[in-house]
Amino acid sequence: MKQQTEALHYGYEKDTQNTMAVPIYQTTAYEFRDTEHAANLFALKELGNIYTRLNNPTTDVFEKRFAQVQGGEAALATSSGMSAIFYAIANAAEAGDNIVCASQLYGGTLTQASHTLKRFGIEARFFDVQNPQEIEALIDDKTKVVFFETLTNPSIDVADISAITAIANRHNILSVVDNTVATPVLCNPFKFGVDIIVHSASKYTTGQGLAIGGIMVERKGIVDKLKANPRYPQFNEPDASYHGLVYTDVPLPPYTLRGRLSLLRDLGGVLSPFNSWLFIQGLETLSIRMREHSKNAQTIAEFLESHPLVLKVNYPGLKSDSNYKNAQKYFENGASSGLLSFEVSSFEKAKSIVDAVKIFSLVVNIGDSKSIITHPASTTHQQLSSQELKECGVGEGMIRLSIGLESSVDLVQDLKQALEA
Questions:
Q1: Is 365 inside any structural domain?
Q2: Domain contains 183
């Protein structure tokens, strides 16, 4: 089936009520047939529902459907995009290990990598996403993950995915990419060698800012990279917390399985069934919305590029953008999502523009059907120093826009009056 058809149908077998919509199974626990059935479920001799911290029928449909739409083998839904990132890294790394990350990351991800993971004993080392060759010098025998974003937020860089994964594969290291901004509709990083994809489902997946959630997807055949790989003993040695299970020896997707049985079970960052249901609804219209977001963003970017008060526009759909070539290579038909940024002369000028808009809402979110404006230097990235802002590609006069589904004519007019106020 084609992606759009899968987004509407995959992973749902109608229950006894034959409902067209996936039901919301709003329950904590499930009744077992007898003690043998319960024991078999806990021993993985049978697969089925145990407790909603581990699995839930509504969430199961969301996981299966999202994995299929993204082109992966299996998925693990989490309570937020940040928890999906944490689980993707914590599944591979432990105290004493390190990860190699692009400098150009979402502010929350930068903080998690630089500070929170550090307290867990995991060191983050950074490379310029525009210069993936820097990765080589950062790798040692304790490197467990190379992490980056397909389309960076808010610097709007497009990663050279093939170049990054080639380096990771040469060293037999897992590559993890955040594909939130591009979405499965515009980009499939698995085609270019990525091992694990994470998303904040709170963004384009829901599409209306209705729910917080995340998801981690593993590629087909990842077991071949993990099995007997000395970097990842946790997948090849018996897990004492789960009956001596060896994750690469069972016929189930190992990265998702360990994430569920070791991390989700113990840390508890579980997605609610109701939010899973909301994300299922969002998936149904994702491909249509992404076309409109991208079309509107292209119009806005072209307007901003022509305005004399704008110093620079960052949008890969513009032929003048340094990321245009990568966008044409990695994104479906070169469509570049609804996220863009532009730079004006100063911190104060940027703030005055943000305060003057009438249709755009000042919100620290992206991917909404309504257009959003953000000044990263005073909000999402305010914890960073001037040097750190520069290193992650965020200028003090940068304004980030998440272009919604309003008329592009109205959006252009709103930005014009704000620029010239």
A1: yes
A2: yes
* pLDDT (0 to 100) of residue 334: 92
What pLDDT is stored for residue 7 in this prediction? 95
Structure tokens at 298: 């292209």
Residue range of the domain that includes 153:
3-274
Q: What residue has token string 């626990």?
A: 29
Query: What pLDDT is recorded for position 392?
Result: 67
Domain tally, the chain? 2
The CATH number for 240's domain is 3.40.640.10
Same domain, 186 and 74: yes
339 in Cβ contact with 401 (< 8 Å): yes
Mean pLDDT of all residues in 94-103: 98
Taking the alpha carbons at both ends of the chain, their separation in whole angstroms is 51
φ/ψ (deg, to 5) at 402: -110, 105
Q: What is the pLDDT of residues 168-201, one digit of tens each?
A: 999 999 999 999 999 999 999 999 999 999 999 9
Q: Identify whether 188 is part of a domain.
A: yes
Decide: 236 and 216 in contact? Cβ < 8 Å. Answer: no
Together in a domain, 320 and 221: no
Nearest CA among 64, 84, 69, 338 for reference residue 199: 84
Cβ(196)–Cβ(229) under 8 Å? no
H-assigned helices in 94-194: 107-111, 117-119, 135-138, 161-170, 183-186
Nearest-10 crossing angle of helices 408-419, 347-356: 130
CA-atom Rg of the chain in angstroms? 22
Instruction: Please check whether residues 258 and 113 belong to one and the same domain.
Output: yes
Q: Which residues pair with 158 in a beta bridge?
A: 151
**Which residues, at least 6 apart from 241, have a Cβ–Cβ distance to it below 8 Å?**
262, 266
Whether residues 265 and 323 share a domain: the answer is no
Q: What is the pLDDT of residues 197-248, one digit of tens each?
A: 999 999 999 999 999 999 999 999 999 999 999 999 999 999 999 889 999 9
pLDDT digits (tens, 9 = 90+) for 274-292: 999 999 999 999 999 999 9
Q: Are 152 and 393 in contact (CB under 8 A)?
A: yes
Give the H or E element holding residue 275. helix 273-306
Higher per-residue confidence, 377 vs 61: 61
pLDDT at 382 over 80: no
Q: Which residues pair with 215 in a beta bridge?
A: 77, 199
Residues 267 and 323 in one domain: no
